[in-house]
Write a structure and sequence with these properties.
alpha/beta; Metallo-beta-lactamase, Chain A; 6-stranded mixed sheet; 7 helices; 15 strands; about 25% strand
Length: about 290
């Protein structure tokens, strides 16, 4: 492994999301992973306050940002990827599976015309791709299962896993979105479990109980020993059965439809109509009984 990065993790309490600022201490070059905007569905207002705070930290520390990275197209918050790209000029990247995610949602959103587009991203990473953050080498590990575009980023001894893994007591990601697969997620996690036990694992989400601190970091060893859904000795069939049964009981994420439309575009709203308004679609199903 290459040298260890410095990692600052910022928790967005409204969505339970961790944004990670990954820094090469030798060069003061950095990457930003899974940055967040605020969104109020009642008013339709998008607010950049969390991204402003992150940008201020970058500037105060005189960091140069080489990459703005997404671990997948999120269904529970609005991405600040495009907002930061426009202000920092760093390329915005996600996994190549984003095209499959777009196709999966296209018929649900009547958006077949742009289903194959990468949409707003400067780089689509394939499994095994490498890139640099200053003097640090980073490697892309495809982790499909939660979503087809899910990737983890390995930077030195630090692994940024997106929604693939949660803190050990919270288990693993749901797999019931279009293109999701519990079997694929099992295989993806097994790839991560092949890394050294001391590998630092940085999470994308944690939802602490009232009064408890949110967990940003664990290790591969801790996950293998104690993950509530998939330990080192968990058989594939047993995991798939538990995951599918649990997914069948989960509610649809509150921000799924607005967030996925925004995030599939890299963090941008659809073009304005003739009146200057921008619109997000909401599929409706009437269960009349």
């Amino acid at each position: 492994m290459s040298a260890a990065p410095l990692v600052d993790s910022i928790h967005h309490a409204a969505s339970g999301t961790w944004t990670h600022l990954v820094v090469d201490p030798e060069s003061a070059r950095a990457a930003i992973i899974d940055a967040v905007l605020d969104f109020d569905p009642a008013s339709g207002r998008v607010d950049a306050a969390p991204a402003h705070a992150l940008l201020e930290q970058v500037r105060e520390r005189a960091l140069g940002v080489d990459w703005i990275l997404e671990t997948h197209a999120h269904a529970d918050h609005f991405s600040a990827g495009a907002w930061l790209h426009d202000r920092l000029g760093a390329p915005l990247a996600i996994g190549t599976g984003i095209a499959e995610v777009r196709r999966g949602f296209a018929h649900l959103l009547d958006a077949s015309g742009d289903a194959d587009a990468g949409g707003g991203f400067d780089r689509l990473f394939a499994d095994g791709d490498t890139f640099r953050i200053g003097g640090l080498e980073a490697r892309v590990i495809a982790t499909p299962g939660h979503t087809p575009d899910s990737v983890a980023y390995l930077v030195g001894d630090a692994l940024f896993v997106g929604d693939t893994l949660f803190a050990p007591d919270a288990g693993t990601a749901r797999c019931d979105f279009p293109g999701g697969s519990a079997a694929r997620l099992y295989d993806s996690i097994r790839r991560l479990y092949a890394l050294p036990d001391a590998t630092r694992v940085f999470l994308c989400h944690d939802y602490p109980a009232d009064g408890a601190a949110a967990t940003a970091q664990t290790t591969i060893g801790d996950e293998k020993r104690a993950n509530a859904h998939l330990r080192a000795d968990t058989p594939r069939d047993a995991y798939v059965e538990v995951r599918q049964r649990r997914d069948a009981s989960l509610p649809v994420p509150r921000l799924l439809w607005p967030a996925i439309q925004f995030n599939l575009r890299g963090g941008r709203l659809p073009p304005a109509d003739a009146s200057g308004h921008r619109w997000l679609k909401l599929p409706v199903r009437f269960d009349a009984g």
